[in-house]
Amino acid sequence: MGMLVDGKWVIDDARYRNESSGAFVRPDSTFRRWITADGSSGFPAEAGRYQLLVAANCPWAHRTVITRRLKGLEHVMDLVQSTGVQSEEGWPFEQGVDNGPQPPRGGVMHLHEVYSAAAPDYSGRVTVPTLWDRIARTVVNNESAELIRMFDTEFGAYSNDALTLRPEGLTGTIDEVNEWVYTDVNNGVYRCGFSTTQASYEAACRTLFAALDRVESILEHQRYLAGDVVTEADVRLFPTLVRFDAVYYGLFKCNIRHLWEYKNLSGYVRDLYAHPGFGDTCDLHAFKRGYYEGIRRANPNGVIPLGPLGPGMDFTTPHDRDSRAY
Q1: Which of 85, 202, 211, 245 has a 20 to 30 A CA-CA distance from 75?
Q2: Is 286 exposed, middle or buried (0-12, 13-18, 19+ CB in 10 A)?
Q3: Residue range 119-134: average pLDDT?
Q4: Quick one: average pLDDT of 196-211?
Q5: Where are the domains of the chain?
């Protein structure tokens, strides 16, 4: 993998830099500017102004794709999809960005070229999702948690404003759940997969499954993470869960239990999968290819497994979440 140093792409393993204990540490996102409905931030919520760059296998990008669909923003911001897996050059795109880098004839543009165009002296990670402003010719934000919040709250003039992912009265619960789900589940699977010592791996794995047990208990008593409606908390958790058995169980050694062994969690995933914006934004083969072929640090030969073919891999099978009394 690589990163930008003073605007130049270098092959470096800093993306996976670990503490001396062997524990994986995820660097913070760098571009953190905010879109506002009234434009007071300098980045107004306007139709046609922004392009969202994503990769199909990335769970952090997936949550922005789900939110874009749920809020009805497909006509407001274009989706630019990576056409391959990560290489030493990072994420490849056959489509460029307006008023910005374009792929050469018959070739691809890499995401780091977009970052260099936005900030010629930029140093740091180059990640999806990335939101490009075609008018200001810059990257607005590459932090998925902030992007989904903007999509939900700042595009009311264009979006499905009947749906809010942060309903009044639930914001405290949502924020509390988000905090430990991010640390122990969303990032927890990576802490398992990228640990470099036995002790750090075992600690991360135990923490992950304790958190999954906690979610299982919550879902015994309510349909969704924050109550009886889909919220931001569900949008943030679903991309990790839908990849769990296909990717994290094997590649990242998150193998104490399959997700399908959890009654409530597996039913919850199938419940969300049936919602427009969730299941119709999933591509199981792309998930597997992106991880197994793209993360050579974890899978040096790039071979993609045929399975799993277990009882929980058909997310269209019936669930009882809508008929249960909680």
Answers
A1: 85
A2: middle
A3: 95
A4: 97
A5: 2-153, 171-292
The residue to which tokens 């990717």 are assigned = 247
Q: What is the largest CA-CA distance in the chain?
A: 58
- Determine whether 58 is an active site residue: yes
- 3-class DSSP state of 227: strand
Dihedral pair phi/psi, residue 24, rounded to 5°: -75, 135
Q: Which of 50, 122, 190, 224 is catalytic?
A: 190
Q: Which CATH class is domain 171-292?
A: mainly alpha
Cα–Cα distance list, 11 to 7, 87, 190, 208 (Å): 13, 10, 21, 31
- In the residue annotation, 201 being an active-site residue is answered as no
Q: Which CATH number, 3.40.190.290, 3.40.50.150, 3.40.30.10, 3.40.640.10, labels domain 2-153?
A: 3.40.30.10
Strands 109-110 and 92-93: antiparallel
**Taking all residues of the chain, what is their mean pLDDT, rounded to a whole number?**
94
Cβ–Cβ under 8 Å, residues 208 and 193 = no
What pLDDT score does 22 carry?
72
> Is 97 within 8 Å of 134 (Cβ atoms)?
yes
Report whether 272 contacts 223 (CB < 8 A): no
Residue 2 phi, psi (nearest 5): -140, -175
Q: Cα dist. 207→177, 186, 255 in Å?
A: 15, 12, 13
Q: Is 162 left (phi over 0), alpha (psi -120 to 50) or beta?
A: alpha
Q: Is the pLDDT of residue 29 over 90?
A: no
Q: Residue 35: what pLDDT?
A: 98
Which of 50, 58, 248, 292 is labelled catalytic?
58
